[in-house]
Fold this protein.
Amino acid sequence: MRKLLLHTCCGPCTTYVHKSLVDQGFEVKGLFYNPNIRPREEYEKRLLMMEYYATAVGLKVIYQPNDLELEPGNCENCYRVRLRRTAQFARDLAYDCFSTTLLISPFQKHELLRQIGEEIGKESGIPFYYQDFRIGYRESRQMAKKFNLYMQKYCGCDPHPLTLNRPPSPSKMERGIKGVRKKEASYAKVS
Ligand code: SF4
């Protein structure tokens, strides 16, 4: 079974990508590293949703702290920083390849992302696994809804006040947690 280290940007984008990779026979581990998400509260929400989804589906994730100040709006650098870190971990942990959940978003610079991933793959000696996951974007939103995951309306560094999601209400969070517990119970029965 090929081992793939998956850079994860958030819970909602992880849903479909993770499922698709597992269905294709990969052994997947996540790496959450997203130093350009602002403000801090927004970062915390995405981190929480990631932890909560990963727990529900049994995905192991390495959480990397925000250790860099990145320039807002410089997507090329932002992609490089995240994918380089992922490739480093993949190499150190003897993974066969690495990839990113950013490939599911129709709002990202998809071709640039692919190009950078492939460059870093060559530099690091760990192949970048490319797949156009955008076909599953809609399904990923449906999956995220089932888990009551918070879905942000901007990429990370430039929250426009009109598009900034409000934090989930306590009752929504409560429903989400119940959903996760139910899933956990059903996974426990299967295993
Ligand atoms: S828009 Fe997204 S990818 Fe581009 S710099 Fe900001 S956080 Fe990074």
Q: What stands out?
A: The longest strand covers residues 3-8. Confidence is low (pLDDT under 50) at residues 161-168. The helical segments are 11-23, 40-57, 75-92, 110-124, 137-146, 170-190. The chain has six helices and four strands.
